[in-house]
Design a protein that fits this description.
The structure is a single chain. The protein is an alpha/beta fold and 445 residues long. Helices cover 36% and strands 15% of the residues. The protein has 16 helices and 12 strands. The protein has helices at residues 3-14, 47-61, 88-112, 133-141, 187-196, 198-204, 216-222, 224-232, 252-255, 300-304, 314-323, 354-366, 379-385, 397-400, 408-413, 418-433; strands at residues 30-36, 71-76, 121-131, 148-150, 159-170, 236-242, 265-268, 290-295, 328-332, 343-344, 377-378, 391-392. The strands form 2 sheets. Strands 1, 2, 3, 4, 5, 6, 7, 8, 9 and 11 form a 10-stranded mixed beta sheet that branches. The protein has a two-stranded antiparallel sheet with strand order 10-12. Helix 1 packs across helix 8. The chain starts with a helix and ends in a 12-residue tail after the last helix.
């Protein structure tokens, strides 16, 4: 099946599910969480996150008087192991096929255990954590996964209905890497680097089209029917980004789809609430790894409007449309947990730290607002305040933030990032399993 046929099928199936309801029958619901690794990675890359999710799940189920017996199944995807150079489309297609096969196999096993069951419509939910390139794979893959899967060949007259739950990315280059390299380089150099990195490199550096704006990354950020609509169906979207110049591969602006030209509003969370639900962070502490949490509201008008055809507005259009999906963005400061020395920049001792500058900015906003709910921070503000640093160190936050475990050397080097993944896992489990306020679907029996 070619890409056009895949798109036609995905578009038709996407219209079946309005994305506003997920299963509520706790005895029959399975929630799948797919962990998707990145460039040159393997499924072991997200092994620690998998264990953190399992730990959080056990804690959740052990709560007194907890009636929730829903299944939560975590799967580290493997089809792209050793195959991350042939482009986003190819990787996404392998991922989508793996997900569909996994859901069908697991559902068939569950239904076959109860031969007397009269269930002919099984409801499941899917959630993702895509790391780096894995986030782009997942964004494309959801346009290829139908709203219903037929398992007649295994269990007659039975179908699986898929609902979109939580979509999370960690250090994913949502806007690509063109104009978002750690050190700015001329466009001709970007295209050269992209060519050296094979088809995936061309996709990331947006150099595979006939002209700027005629590339896959731009389409994924602006095409409503094929890409934005499927992503909008998720109950929640979360983007983790490394702040303060700690991520060489995926700098802050592309990970959090920020634009220095965008005035799109974000609502900041009160820092004193960080970690309130899990008690794993010091409330508002200067040394906590979360710098900022901000949210954007879904805006269908922006999502559906035609993007600017002017080259100078491409980046702004991509940023605004991604923001219009409605996200929670989490900015992480790993400077204190990256291995190796950190050196102060000249005159840094006389200046405020980047965190102090952000804190003062919020306090100034708060002085003219009643609560944090009334504060609005623009994408432009965040692009300015979440970048730069008063210290210099090795920029390996890309690996540290997710406690990358793809081999023993990586596991040792990134161990300090485990608390970040503990936080993500805890929030993810609660978001998936807490059904209060969620719509239900008809009885499955």
């Amino acid at each position: 099946m070619n890409s056009n046929e895949l798109y036609s099928t995905a578009k038709k199936d996407a219209e079946i599910d309005n994305g506003k309801s997920i299963p509520s029958d706790s005895n029959n619901t399975t929630h799948f969480v797919f962990l998707v690794h990145g460039w040159l990675g393997n499924d072991l890359e997200m092994k620690y996150l998998e264990s953190a999710i399992e730990t959080s799940k056990k804690k959740y189920y052990s709560q007194p008087l907890n009636p929730n017996q829903e299944r939560l199944v975590v799967h580290r995807t493997r089809n792209n192991n050793g195959h991350t150079k042939d482009g986003i489309l190819e990787g996404a297609t392998r991922l989508a096929n793996e997900i569909k096969d996994f859901i069908l196999k697991d559902t068939a096993e569950q239904l076959n255990r109860d031969k007397d069951s009269n269930i002919h419509e099984k409801h499941v939910s899917i959630s993702f954590v895509g790391n780096s390139l894995g986030g782009l794979y997942a964004r494309y893959a959801i346009s290829l996964i139908p709203a219903e899967l037929n398992i007649d060949n295994i269990i007659p007259n039975t179908r699986v209905v898929i609902h979109s739950n939580v979509f999370c990315t960690t250090a994913t280059p949502h806007l690509g890497t063109a104009s978002h390299t750690y050190i700015a380089v001329p466009r001709i150099v970007e295209k050269g680097i992209g060519k050296l990195l094979s088809k995936t490199g061309k996709d990331l550096f947006r150099s595979d089209g006939n002209s700027d704006g005629d590339d896959l990354i731009y389409e994924m950020c602006t095409d409503y029917e094929q890409f934005l609509l499927p992503l909008s169906k998720f109950q929640k979207r979360i983007a983790y980004a490394n702040a303060f110049g700690t991520d060489f591969q995926v700098p802050t602006n592309t990970a959090a789809f920020l634009s220095e030209k965008s005035m799109h509003n974000h609502c900041p969370t009160d820092p004193s609430l960080f970690g309130k639900d899990d008690n794993e962070m010091k409330n508002g502490a200067e040394d906590s790894f979360i710098v900022a949490m901000v949210t954007t509201e879904q805006n269908n008008d922006i999502l559906k409007e035609n993007g600017s055809k002017e080259r100078k507005h491409y980046s702004l259009t991509m940023s605004n449309k991604m923001d219009a999906l409605g996200w929670t963005k989490v900015f992480i400061d790993v400077r204190g947990i990256i291995p190796g020395p950190r050196l102060n920049r000249p005159l840094a001792a006389r200046q405020m730290t980047r965190r102090q500058i952000w804190s003062n900015f919020l306090q100034k906003k708060l002085s003219t607002s009643k609560t944090y709910d009334d504060i609005r921070v623009t994408s432009q503000d965040l692009a300015r305040l979440m970048n730069g640093s008063e210290t210099i160190g090795i920029p390996i936050g890309h690996q540290v933030m997710i406690a990358n475990s793809k081999n023993k050397r990586y596991s040792d080097m990134t161990a300090n990032g485990k608390p970040v993944m503990d936080k993500l896992a805890n929030d993810l489990v609660h978001s998936i399993l807490e059904t209060e306020g969620k719509d239900s679907v008809p009885d499955q029996s």
